[in-house]
Specification:
Length: 495
C-alpha cells in the first residue's frame, strides 16, 4: 500500500480504507490518472466519528485556552505560506484551475485561519446579562458544539475546507471532514499541516470517499453534533433530511444563480464600458464558471445590450484555454467528463429554446474536459439555462428597460447567494442593492469577499452563514449561567 493511497486519517494515524478500496484521481486537463486515494466507506466513517467523539469528550482540545487555539491557527497559516507553491500547484491540477488561481486560494485559506485566530482572541469572556439585582450574576457564554461533520465541494476544495475547519477549531470542536471524491488532494495536504502544527490526535479526522456513502453516514450519525455542507441543492436537501432524525445543527451552502445587473450609465465613458465588460467576463468565466457565486446571468439595460454583448462576445472568444500551469492560460478545463457533458446539454437546450449563440458553444480540439467560454444572447426566464445552475463557462444575457424591471429580473430566482449592480448613480446603487434578495451584493464590482464578512444566501442557496462572527457562531452553543449570590428560601410552598 503506497502512501498516496493512505488518505484516511483517523485518531492521528494515516491508513487505507477498511475495505482496501481505492479511487483514481483524474487530471481534467488531459483525462489521465495522476493520483490514487483510499475509497472510504461506512466503517471508516464510524471509526473517524468515534475518534472525534473521544477527542471531544475526553481530550484536551475543547478545554484548551483561546490563546492556545489561536496560536495553532496562526502556525497553520505560516505553514500554508511556506507550502504556497506546492499546494497551489496541487489545487490547480486537481480542480483544473489556473496556477495563479491555485496560489490565490492558498492565500485566502491562510487569511481565513488568521482571521478566526484574531476573532477568538479579541472576544470577551461572555456577555453579562443585567438581572436587575446585585444579588445575581448572569452571563451568557459560548461553548463548542462538539463533533462536526464537514462536507466540502469539488470546485474550491481547499478554500471551502478552511471556511469550516478554521472556525470549528477556533471554537474548540473536533471534526471529521469529507472532501469531494473528485478533488480530495489539497484537503489531505491541509490535514497534514494541522498535524505538523501540533493539533492533538483525534481532533482532525478525514475520510476520502463518495458522498453517497461517507457523506450520508456523517449526516445521519448519532454522534455527530453538527453537519456543515457545501455543494448542490439536491445533495444538500438529502443531508438536511438525514440530519433531522438526530436533530443536529445543520449549515448548508447550496450555490446560486447570480445576477449581474448593468445599467447604461455605468458605461457612459470608455473607461466605464471597458470596466463593466471586463468584470462581466470575470464574473462568468473565472475557474470556467465553476463558482457558486458566478455571475452567470448578465442583465443589461436594453439600450446598451447590442454594444455590450458584441464586445463581451469578442473578448470571450479570445480567452486562452489551457492546463493551469501553461504559460498564458487564462481558463482551465471543467473538473470532469460529467460536468463537461452537463454543460453541453445546457447549451444545446438553450439554443433549442431560442437563445442566440454569440461566442463559444463547443469543445476545442484535443484532450481534457475543456469547453469554450460561451455567451448566449436573447435569453429569458423561461429557459432552463437561466433558471438552473450550470456550473460551467456559460453566460446568459437578459435585458431590462426600467430599474423596477431590473430588480424583478434579478430576484426572479429560487436561489439568493450573490448579485451585483453596475451604475454611476449612487442613489440607484443603494436602492437596488437594498432590494436584491441575495446574501452578498456587490456595487460596481464582482467576486471579492472578506473573511470578516458573512457569506451565505437566501432561499435555496442555503441556511446559515460562513465567515465573519456568524461563521464562528455556527460552531458554538450558547449557554446561560445564572448565579444567585445570596440564596434564600423561596417559600413558594407552605411546607
Amino acid at each position: 500500500m503506497s502512501a498516496a493511497q493512505q488518505t484516511i486519517h483517523v485518531g492521528g494515524e494515516w491508513r487505507p480504507a477498511v475495505s482496501g478500496a481505492t479511487r483514481d484521481i483524474i487530471d481534467p486537463a488531459d483525462a489521465s490518472v495522476f493520483a490514487v486515494v483510499s475509497e472510504g466507506g461506512v466503517a471508516d466513517t464510524d471509526d473517524a466519528v468515534a475518534a472525534a467523539r473521544a477527542a471531544f469528550d475526553d481530550g484536551s482540545w475543547p478545554r484548551t485556552s483561546v490563546a492556545e487555539r489561536a496560536d495553532l491557527l496562526r502556525r497553520v497559516a505560516t505553514l500554508l505560506e511556506r507550502d504556497r507553491e506546492t499546494i497551489g500547484a496541487l489545487e490547480s491540477q486537481d480542480a483544473g484551475k489556473t496556477l495563479e488561481e491555485g496560489r490565490v486560494d492558498v492565500d485566502c485559506v491562510r487569511d481565513a485561519f488568521r482571521y478566526f485566530a484574531d476573532l477568538v482572541m479579541n472576544e470577551s469572556g461572555g456577555r453579562v446579562v443585567d438581572a436587575g439585582t446585585d444579588e445575581v450574576h448572569s452571563v451568557v457564554v459560548h461553548e463548542p458544539v462538539g463533533v462536526c461533520a464537514l462536507i466540502t465541494p469539488w470546485n474550491y476544495p481547499l478554500l471551502q475546507a478552511s471556511w469550516k475547519i478554521a472556525p470549528a477549531l477556533a471554537a474548540g470542536n473536533t471534526f471529521v471532514i469529507k472532501p469531494s471524491e473528485i478533488t480530495p488532494l489539497t484537503t489531505v495536504a491541509l490535514i497534514g499541516l494541522l498535524m505538523e502544527a501540533g493539533l492533538p490526535q483525534g481532533v482532525a479526522n478525514l475520510v476520502t470517499g463518495a458522498g453517497a456513502t461517507v457523506g450520508a453516514r456523517l449526516a445521519e450519525h448519532p454522534d455527530v453534533d453538527l453537519v456543515s455542507f457545501t455543494g448542490g441543492l439536491t445533495s444538500g436537501t438529502k443531508v438536511a433530511r438525514a440530519a433531522a432524525d438526530t436533530v443536529k445543527k445543520v449549515a448548508l451552502e447550496l450555490g446560486g444563480k447570480n445576477p449581474n445587473v448593468v445599467f447604461a450609465d455605468a458605461c457612459a465613458t470608455d473607461e466605464g464600458f471597458d470596466t463593466a465588460v471586463d468584470q462581466a467576463l470575470n464574473a462568468a468565466f473565472i475557474h470556467s464558471g465553476q463558482v457558486c457565486s458566478a455571475g452567470s446571468r448578465l442583465i443589461v439595460e436594453e439600450s446598451l445590450r447590442d454594444r455590450f454583448v458584441t464586445e463581451l462576445a469578442r473578448r470571450a472568444e479570445r480567452i486562452r484555454l489551457g492546463r493551469g500551469t501553461d504559460p498564458g492560460a487564462e481558463c482551465g478545463p471543467l473538473v470532469s467528463e460529467q460536468q463537461l457533458a452537463k454543460t453541453e446539454d445546457f447549451v444545446a437546450s438553450a439554443i433549442a429554446e431560442g437563445a442566440v449563440l454569440r461566442a463559444g458553444g463547443e469543445r476545442p480540439e484535443g484532450p481534457g474536459y475543456f469547453y469554450r467560454p460561451t455567451v448566449l444572447d436573447r435569453c429569458d426566464r423561461r429557459m432552463r439555462v437561466v433558471r438552473e445552475e450550470v456550473f460551467g463557462p456559460v453566460l446568459t444575457v437578459e435585458t431590462f428597460r426600467t430599474e423596477e424591471e431590473a430588480v424583478t429580473l434579478a430576484n426572479d430566482t429560487e436561489y439568493g447567494l450573490a448579485g451585483a449592480v453596475w451604475t454611476a448613480d449612487a442613489g440607484r446603487a443603494r436602492r437596488v442593492a437594498g432590494r436584491l434578495r441575495h446574501g452578498t451584493v456587490w456595487i460596481n464590482d464582482f467576486h471579492p469577499y472578506l473573511p470578516q464578512a458573512e457569506w451565505g444566501g437566501f432561499g435555496k442557496s442555503g441556511i446559515g452563514r460562513e465567515l465573519g462572527p456568524t461563521g464562528l457562531a455556527e460552531y458554538r452553543e450558547a449557554k446561560h449561567i445564572y448565579q444567585n449570590l445570596a440564596p434564600r428560601p423561596v417559600r413558594w410552598f407552605a411546607g
